[in-house]
Structure prediction request, 200 residues.
Amino acid sequence: MPFTFTPCSADGLVIDGLFEIQPKVFGDNRGYFFEVYSEKEFKAAGLMMTFIQDNQSSSSKGVLRGLHFQTQHPQGKLVRAVSGQVYDVAVDLRNGSETFGRYYGVVLDSEKQNQFYIPEGFAHGFYVLSDTAVFAYKCTDFYDPAGEGGIMWNDPQIGIPWDSIAPGMTPVLSEKDGKHQNFDRNGSWFDIHGRWCGNR
Prediction:
């Protein structure tokens, strides 16, 4: 099998739709080869998404981007570190989900070539651990600047342990990412299928 699909869990509960994916890497003294994505293999694993946009960014050590989501055009994302290492996080914002409000984090490492699939209805962010990192993601919908939303990266109700992931490092944030809303457990976010049902 060219891929291993591992369901992600938080507090002993499987987070529906969230997967860490390990491609099989073929390497020798010349270099390496691996499949980043195969529609056939993903659908055989029950992942029926269609990707329509690819994005790539470069960031320096300590940059924290997130926690982001889109309202009118929610995006599922297949993310990976092309170079370097990042701590990548997804927060379940699907009202009615058994894991609503919980997060899952994974270190994405270009040496390991692991990937992370985050379905619609999640907030997403990442923290750069290496000197630089090139981050790539395939998306199931187009970017919609009018529908941008976000949650504060250090929201205490979510409790992502950024400090323990990178001790002594200070996150570098954009002005916009420093002003996101706090998480409201009683608020309306996404429905169980990842469709926006909030008030924005």
Summary: The two ends are 43 Å apart (CA to CA). Residues 71 and 147 are 5 Å apart (CA to CA).
